[in-house]
Amino acid sequence: MRKIKVMHVLTDTNIGGAGTLLYNTVCCGDTERFDYIVVLPKGSRLIDRFMTLPCRIALVACGQDRSFEVGAFAEYVRLIRREHPDILHTHAALTARIAGRLCRVPVCIQTRHCVFPMTAWQKSSAFRFLFRVGSRMLSDRVVAVADAARDNLIALGMDAEQIEVIINGVLPLRECSDDEVDAVRERWGLDESQFVVGMSARLEEYKGQGTVLRAAALCKNAAPDMRFILMGDGSQIDSYRELARELDIEDRVIFTGFVDDVAPYYALMDLNVNASFGTETSSLALSEGMSVGVPALASDYGGNPRMIEGGVNGFLFPPKDEQALADLLLRLHDDRTLLHELSDGARHLYQQRFTAPAMVARLEGLYTRLMIDKGWKAALAH
Fold it and tell me: Which fold does the domain 178-353 belong to in CATH?
């Protein structure tokens, strides 16, 4: 039986949530039934990662970090006509979606990875009508990675029946040796007696590192052994370093920059923080932490409330509320019994809801159903 050929198009040049999700998808994919092609922009940091997976990689010169780019259209058309995919699955990449429809790809899918605040124009009936029509024209189905993403799409005008919610799943972080963890501690001047709070996210205002830094300052006197590791790069790195200086917590906060292998860092964390107040759906960083039993404190925003159950695998706090976050940090710093219970709960919820194989099984099931709907009888063989 001929395999179903699936072409994924991603425009990201850096490694973020969409790229990690796609990596997990290909890594756990059924290679006996599906032939995966991953389209990436030249120079993307993701290229080396996908080189190790059972997929083919196609590189494009245009479409770097842009969903729509007129110059990328002809390149996508040539690529699609050369490969003849059965399914075109885009991650943003509006230009590729338009090219896919022009080339009559049998099934076109897009994934909505984020939640965006709506503007006044987007709330208007005119926009909602255009968005609904455009969505129907360009996509057979839209995958929302969280209920929050689905709700956002419906608010913009999309028909609910066009949306399939498939919660993000991640591979468990690898087990690290004591030597690896000790090497990270030594690099950043940490010792085993310290209480380590970590956060892995791009350093952007909406990710909420400012809230974390102000909470760290509130904890300074009550918990002198508390240390904060902020992993990630972004446009706010200089302003966050300056904020740490202003708060007089430079000795309590570590800015690591981009971290390719986060496993040793999670291995020494006591708590994992997500402080987003924009774009958050189902956080891969939260799921990765749960896979190794790291409880989370997360803002009550976007998809976070569906991932964190208060008193089970962590706690929620109001977005931008550094006092509420500080209170939770100090509570868990002082109550190690509760911290241990939350760690067990985190591992349990990960296994129940957030594994990569479960996510990929649902996604490949969707692929098969849509191909059957298009009349491709070979898909019925499995």
Answer: Rossmann fold (3.40.50)
Block means of pLDDT (10 residues each) for the chain, 382 residues, are 93 90 95 97 95 96 92 96 98 95 97 89 96 96 94 96 94 95 97 97 96 98 98 96 98 95 97 93 93 97 93 98 98 98 98 95 96 75 50
SS3 (DSSP) at 232: strand
Contact 273, 333 (CB under 8 A): no
pLDDT at 117: 81
What is the C-alpha to C-alpha distance for residues 108 and 238, in angstroms, rounded to an integer? 41
Give just the sign of the alpha carbon dihedral 27, 147, 44, 184: negative
Query: 4-170+355-381, what's its fold?
Result: Rossmann fold (3.40.50)
Three-class secondary structure of residue 91 per DSSP: strand
Contact 146, 138 (CB under 8 A): no
Domain ranges of the chain: 4-170+355-381, 178-353
Strand pairing category for 226-231 and 253-257: parallel
Contacts of 205 (CB under 8 A, 6+ apart): 236, 278
Residues 6+ apart with CB under 8 A from 175: 263
Q: Measure the N-to-C terminal CA separation of the chain; round to a whole number of Å.
A: 10
Residues in CB range of 119: below 8 A, 6 or more apart: none
Q: Which of 145, 154, 7, 2 is nearest to 76 (CA)?
A: 7
- State whether the Cα torsion 372-74-95-25 is positive or negative: positive
Report how far residue 193's alpha carbon sits from residue 176's, in angstroms, rounded to the nearest whole number.
19
Say which residues have a Cβ less than 8 Å from residue 23's Cβ, sequence separation at least 6: 46, 49, 50, 53
What is the distance between the alpha carbons of residues 79 and 58, in angstroms, rounded to a whole number? 8
Q: How far apart are CA 126 and CA 157, in angstroms?
A: 10
4-170+355-381 and 178-353 share one fold = yes
